[in-house]
Amino acid sequence: MNTLCPVEKNKEYLMTIDDIGNDGEGIGKIDGFTVFVKDALPGEKINVLITKVKKNFAYGRLMKIIEVSENRVEPVCINYKRCGGCNIQHLSYKEQLNFKTKKVKDALERIGGFDNVSVKDTIGMENPYNYRNKAQFPVGQNKGRIEIGFYSPRSHNIVDIESCCIQNKVNDRIIKIIRQFMEEEKISAYDESTGKGLVRHILTKVGFVTGEKLVCIVINGNSIPNKEKLIEKLKSIEGLAGIVLNINKQNTNVILGKENKVIWGRGYIVDYIGNIKFEISVHSFFQVNPVQTRILYGKALEMANLTGSENVLDIYCGIGTISLFLAQKAKHVIGVEIVEQAIKDAKRNAEINGIKNAKFIAGPAEKVIPEIYDKGFKADTVVVDPPRKGCDIAVLNTIINMAPKRLVYVSCDPSTMARDVKILYENGFILNEVQPVDQFCHTTHVETVILMTYCGNEAKNEG
């Protein structure tokens, strides 16, 4: 062991937590040496057991809280510590919002290089529970008992649950019905280690406006024995729109296979964001928090400040959710997305809403965007909503060359957002507004929508 290190593995120490990290862990120092402690909060004096020692920091396990933070609350979920999905549920909701604002601000200052950047307060929910419209439950078997729930942190061990406080309450009934059916009919659960067993996952989707529900059962086979009994049981759920079997016989961690079989009703639900109607199938990507999505997209539309004369480019458009919002106030919108099924969904969603000024192109953004620019397309407004890894450099370079008047950046990862914003800032864009939105209450994730305007480096330097 390094003799300069003041802590040793498997020894217990007294320490005070000073800060909270990006993943919600408490951060403090023991004789100047940084220690990260899960579940600890700033201001708390604790006993910590050191579990891992690195060169410049260590990890510890919270053993006892001696002085409790005024921001600590009792988690609502009885599976909170085992599941780990809501990793900051022990922090008051007001402080969760403050944490997310600080997370975005820190990323822009540390990674983006902005000095004392102004970040608006994170927009939270009035009721931060039961907000999710989509759930994915892995199914397993332990000592002959069916387990349905969520994976525990950093593992594929299933935490068996009966209820989840952030999922729609109808899922409690769906899980109970399928669990009882599997037990009564002796239907096997899938075993990852052997590749045997039938039922792998249960996926549900709920329309918050329409009340429609879709149940999808992912199976390692072609059908379910006595499925008529299961259909009859599930039909008791109010608003049930369809029951789907998804076929996934591959030895993979990917949840969904490519083939869907509708065994009752239809293979999609209908829901709305604002006045835009969407058909949402098993494979459709749709924001999981519809209440906050309306706020997020409303903010993006406000930042775009469209007058009806603009050509708009929506990069990483998914099933066209933002594109269709923008199309209501733009001259023309082009949406680009790599997933072909998402583009098919986007075209269908434009059709059912009677929107004719939106065009959708399937292909990798880093290839499609430079191609349409080279062919002469120039956007007045660009919207990007990239995956967690952020924008491809070819996309950023084309945006810089295109020099749109306004750029709206929607992000699910503050770090990659800050990296991309720095590149854009260094090439003539000004950072005008930063608005975090809490899409994922009780987790450390945060969505952010940013407005940048183009003025060119010469004008910016003169300013």
Topology:
Layout: E1 12-20, E2 26-30, E3 33-37, E4 45-53, E5 57-67, H1 80-83, H2 93-110, E6 134-142, E7 145-151, E8 158-160, H3 170-184, E9 199-206, E10 213-219, H4 227-234, E11 240-247, E12 259-265, E13 268-273, E14 276-281, H5 290-304, E15 311-315, H6 321-327, E16 332-337, H7 340-352, E17 358-362, H8 365-374, E18 381-384, H9 393-402, E19 406-411, H10 414-425, E20 429-437, E21 447-454, H11 457-462
Helix pairs in contact: 2-10, 3-4, 5-6, 8-9
Description of the structure:
Helix 2 packs parallel to helix 10 and helix 8 runs parallel beside helix 9. By secondary structure, the protein is of the alpha/beta class. It has helices at 80-83, 93-110, 170-184, 227-234, 290-304, 321-327, 340-352, 365-374, 393-402, 414-425, 457-462; strands at residues 12-20, 26-30, 33-37, 45-53, 57-67, 134-142, 145-151, 158-160, 199-206, 213-219, 240-247, 259-265, 268-273, 276-281, 311-315, 332-337, 358-362, 381-384, 406-411, 429-437, 447-454. The model has no long low-confidence stretch (mean pLDDT 94). The protein has a 7-stranded mixed β-sheet with strand order 8-7-6-9-10-11-12. It is 25% helix and 31% strand. A hairpin with a 5-residue loop joins strand 1 (12-20) and strand 2 (26-30). It is built from 11 helices and 21 strands. It starts with 11 loop residues before the first strand and ends with a helix. The protein folds into 3 domains: 12-72, Beta Barrel (OB fold (Dihydrolipoamide Acetyltransferase, E2P)), CATH 2.40.50.140; 110-124 and 289-462, Rossmann fold (3-Layer(aba) Sandwich); 134-273, OB fold (Dihydrolipoamide Acetyltransferase, E2P), CATH 2.40.50.1070. The longest helix is centred in the N-terminal third of the chain and has 18 residues, at 93-110.
